[in-house]
Write a structure and sequence with these properties.
Layout (H helix, E strand, L loop, with lengths): L3 E2 L10 H11 L10 H20 L6 E5 L2 H9 L12 H4 L13 E3 L17 E3 L11 H4 L3 E5 L10 E5 L25 H19 L2 H19 L4 E2 L10 E5 L5 H10 L2 E2 L15 H5 L4 H4 L2 E5 L6 H24 L1
Parallel strand pairs: 1-9, 3-4, 4-5
Antiparallel strand pairs: 2-6, 5-6, 7-8, 8-10
Helix pairs in contact: 1-6, 2-6, 7-11
Bound molecules: pyridoxal-5'-phosphate.
Length: 339
Amino acid sequence: MKRVYLDWNATAPLRPEARAAMLAAMDCLGNPSSVHAEGRAAKAIIERARGQVAEAVGASGADIVFTSSATEAAALALAGQGFASTELEHGCVAVWTSRTPADPAKTAQQLANNETGEIYEVPEGTGFCDAVQAFGKIPYGFAWSGVERAMISAHKFGGPKGAGALILKQGVDVVAALRGGGQEMGRRSGTENVIGIAGMGAAAQAAAKDLENGLWQIVEQNRNVFEERLLNEVPELIIFGSGVARLPNTSYFAVPGWKAETQVMQMDLAGFAVSAGSACSSGKVKASRVLKAMGYDEITAGSAIRVSIGPSTTAAELESFADAWLKEYKRFKARRKGK
Ligand code: PLP
């Protein structure tokens, strides 16, 4: 059975450009901090990737700090800095921020939510912006956004897992947590992940190109056709974020009472990878914290599944997912009636 992958917000497939850049970097012997030719070659890979990332995120005049993940970038920017945010932020931001309102310079605001795909206003002067889900799916320019700090994560746009970046407006600094070797201008010590960084640079460049080529408009059309079909056949369906600005690739919906965990397992057995909101390291499915913060009850928040797609997802794949899901829905309805 050919598997169909519909979980791009958890992680996106590796781009061929990223794979090629990483394979080339694997053969690079030197330590980027060494002064000899081998070391300089490794350093050159990092600096090329830095340029690619800077250009792709429109970060002229900004500093890019490579990290092991967006989670690390969030910790580097936010830990102990007195930032505030709402409960809608990803856990890696929420954990370092309070829920008390603060002025924009001390506010963390995501550009798009990983579960609902909702896109938010990020006012100029905002202290921290989580652009992890937005970058590569909608136009994003760090410079024109006017924020002071932002972060992205390679594996969300076709780079490798375990590579992220913090983008800092010129003049804005961080308090280094990892200290010692002084890499990344003293902001993040530790020998750099040359392979991951090379992959991230290539993926960022390719992602920016895809966006210019209009690939995500087709993604959005496919998503909308898919949602229309589900809504036609399931009038009780709730589609989260459907009335507001939303990422083109995300569809997050619930039939209250039909547990997300059950649906995810049923769909997995039928050959489809989807998720119940955000991916959790324990692999356990809990009622969505985001939906609860949006005011939904426990049952609805525990029944939401997320289908997230990308440019290589075909309309036929979405159709076959809808067929399989609707088949299970009919069974669920019959069970519910029988109770
Ligand atoms: N922020 C958002 C909105 C995310 O969706 C994720 C990943 O799920 C992260 C941050 C964390 O990224 P990473 O996997 O690089 O730690």
